[in-house]
Specification:
The structure is a single chain. This protein is an alpha+beta fold and 151 residues long. It folds into 2 domains: 36 residues; 112 residues, Alpha-Beta Plaits, CATH 3.30.70. It is 62% helix and 20% strand. It has 5 helices and 4 strands. The protein has a 4-stranded antiparallel sheet with strand order 2-3-1-4. A hairpin with a 2-residue loop joins strand 2 and strand 3. Helix 4 packs antiparallel against helix 5.
Length: 151
């Protein structure tokens, strides 16, 4: 009987050691995945206290939207959920000489699912006009999301 107890205690001890190292190894990955789940990156080109100033500035960017955030009006020219899409849009904006700021916001799961359908096309495409067209559609989705959630 004592032999079984020793084996049982040894198995628990060894299992605990493996569990500790396994948890230690994946802890940062799990935290990164769970905290990013509903975050998107916005390509912001301007922030204004006055809506008219934001609209005047927005006229410089054909495909852009304005949204109000804490009494500030932000001009957004692009958005991304996946890293591959973000890289493509960054390259496009840098190539055009556009200076931007990446702003991260949390959104609901429904918007993420809709955006993912569009991002697949951007990720697979290398044509500037296709990327810009899809980005415009994604901006319209975001604009609708802000309008729905502002009330």
């Amino acid at each position: 009987m004592k032999a079984y107890v020793k084996i049982f205690i040894s198995a628990i001890f060894i299992g605990g050691i493996f569990a500790y190292f396994f948890y230690k190894d994946i802890k940062n990955d799990v935290i990164a995945i769970t905290t990013k789940k509903n975050e998107i990156s916005l390509f912001q080109v301007g922030v204004f206290k006055n809506l008219d100033n934001a609209k005047n500035f927005q006229s410089n960017f054909e495909n852009s939207i304005i949204y109000e955030d804490n009494e500030l009006y932000r001009v957004i020219i692009g958005l991304s959920y996946h890293e591959e899409n973000k890289i493509k849009l960054e390259s496009l904006f840098i190539e055009k000489g556009i200076t931007y700021y990446l702003k991260t916001i949390k959104v609901n799961e429904k918007l993420i699912e809709e955006l993912e359908n569009y991002e697949v096309v951007i990720i697979k495409s290398n044509k500037e006009e296709v990327i810009e067209s899809i980005n415009k559609n994604m901006l319209n989705l975001l604009k609708g999301y802000f309008e729905e959630n502002s009330t």
